[in-house]
Structure formats: C-alpha cells, structure tokens
C-alpha cells in the first residue's frame, strides 16, 4: 500500500508566475519539462498541439498509463490547433498578443517554414520571449541533424564518465539531457520575461540539449586540461573520500567526506585515525590518487556492520553518509513523507484511482504554488482559451468543421 498523501488538485493555488502566459508548442520531454517548471511556478501554460494525436508523449503508455505525459504536462491547458492552416496560424498570432513567452522544440527552421519565424512572432508582440530548444542549437554544423537526449548525453562527456571502468559507457536512468535543458530553458525564459516586463525588448532564447548537460559536468574541461580528469567509474573529485559501500545486512550506503574535518572524524570513528599520517592519504590530492585503497579500508569496517549500526556510529560523529534508497524505499521514507516529496493525485482517463508524482519544487513561503490541474486531454481547453480572445461558439464550430481546431477529447474519445 502506498504511503503517499492523497492530494486533490487545487485550482486556486497561486504561484509567483501568476499572470504570466506561455504558449507551449513543444512536445516530448525537454519542452514538456520546461513548460511544467513554468506551470508549477504559476504560469498559465497553454499547450498548442496538433489535432491528430497531439504531443507524442500521449501515446507512450506503460501499464496503460501515459506516465511521462501525466507528469510533465500537469498544470497546463490544451488547445488542439492545426498550425499548417492559415486560420490556425492566425489564431496563434492572436493568442501571442497577450502572451509573455512562446516555447518550441522543433528542428531549427520548422517555425520559419510554418510562416511563424521569430520576425513574425515579434511583429505580433514585440515583447514576446521565444524559447527554442533543439538537439544541437539553432546554429553550427550539426544544427539540422536530428537530436535526442541520448545523443546529447553521449557527446557532452556525461556518458563517457558514467558507469564503470570495465564496462561500456552507460546512459543515465532518466531523460537527463532533456530535463536539464528544460530547467535551463525555464530559467532563461523567466529572466527574459522579467527583462521585457521591465521595458526591454522581446528576444529569442537558443537552448540545445547538449550544452546544458556539458555545463553540469562542472570543472571537467579544466580537469582534462590539467591531465586529471577522473576515469569512468571514479565519480567526482569534489570529495577526496567518497564511495558506495555494502553492509553486513546487504544494504548500500553512500559516503562523501567533503571537508577535512569530516575526513578526520570518519577515520577516528572507524578506529583508524593513524591512516591520515600515511603520506599516501594525508592530503586531498594524495587521497584522490589512492581512492581505491582508502575505500578498501573504509569498506572493511562497514561490511562487518549492519546499515543501522554504521549510520548510527558515523552520523553521531558528523560524517555525511546516507542509505541508497530505491524509489519504493524513498516513497516510504519518513523524511520524504514529512516533506511531501511525492504525492498522490486523482487519476483520470483509465488511470489508477490515484497517480503518484513528485510535488512542486522548490518551496516558496509567500507564493507556494501547487498542483492546480491534471495533464489535459487533447484540446480540453479549446473553448475557454479561444473564448478569451473573442472567438464565438459559432466560429469555433466552424473551425472544428474545417479541421483548424480539433474536437475536444471528451467528444473525440481520446485522452
């Protein structure tokens, strides 16, 4: 049984971006995550989807649930609009007049081919922020190549470092490149909207999938220049004493002694204070060069004790150590429960009665935001969004009849 807390959607939840409108033409994870971050912070994010199926994430069902769609598109509204039609483009330009930002992640040049390039969009709204996410960026020799997150993870240096020395490079277990790019894109969008609201001009934001991931590799470029880039499986060198260790009850603990005082406390706690008198282990660089030997000493002490015993002894001495939790473990952990890291929200469209997902982050005291609405059915908000720009019910029926506007999912029978 799940230990998550039932959490109904709260349409009245207010975030710091309340009053900011974003037109989200993107699809899949990078755009979905960017839009989700903005929506979680209170922006009115309107998904503009093609009528014939919408965002591809809708079709990626696992155990009957479109898991990625359900999480990445919460707090958004959906309009099913055919942008290949002249009337569809006209409606988008009408919507843009009252928008702060537009988000897209097509292959570079696609907006221009639709007749909706930045010049056209900025003419309709000179203070519009146009956030463009693509595999390789809008310029450069690779810009027209197809690009997905796995390729970005490969070229960014991440995959080369990830895994173990005696095995092939390993991809991450999540859509990491897409999510990091989405975060960078959301941050830049907020900054550009603030600039425009302060009287500055609108602008385009060029976010690739591979550059944000390269940036989170930290000082790797400098370490490579210095000839000290860690090998695959070695992990980061931010801590000279670091590792994952198995306990006598077959559990795993992660330890990272990131400060000299913690290193000293650690070896004192395991009864090996003299280890640090050895020139091989006495300094930061020396310990990095002999990490395997250091970890063997620590590992021998840990492997003879249970996880609870190790945590009690080392935490009592201020050593930074934590259990390696599975998702099932995390969902039951008392600290996760107390902070409501994951919540159950009502399911819909054939989903289970409740759906588990991560809560809104970060936490803001005055504008805490919240989960306002579930991921929308395709075209669910056609009527209300178009009514906001003065389109009559009769005109909407005509647009549906001509294929400019899709039928609402409740009518079409789609999710």
TrEMBL record:
Keywords attached to this entry: Transferase
A Pfam match: CoA_transf_3
Keyword rRNA-binding in record: no
Keyword RNA-binding belongs to the record: no
Matches recorded under SUPFAM superfamilies: CoA-transferase family III (CaiB/BaiF)
Domain of life: Bacteria
InterPro entries assigned: CoA-transferase_III (IPR050509), CoA-Trfase_fam_III (IPR003673), CoA-Trfase_III_dom3_sf (IPR044855), CoA-Trfase_III_dom_1_sf (IPR023606)
GO molecular function: transferase activity
Gene3D superfamilies xref list: Crotonobetainyl-coa:carnitine coa-transferase, domain 1, formyl-coa transferase, domain 3
Similarity section: Belongs to the CoA-transferase III family.
UniProt-listed PANTHER family: L-CARNITINE COA-TRANSFERASE (PTHR48228:SF6), SUCCINYL-COA--D-CITRAMALATE COA-TRANSFERASE (PTHR48228)
Protein name: Crotonobetainyl-CoA:carnitine CoA-transferase CaiB
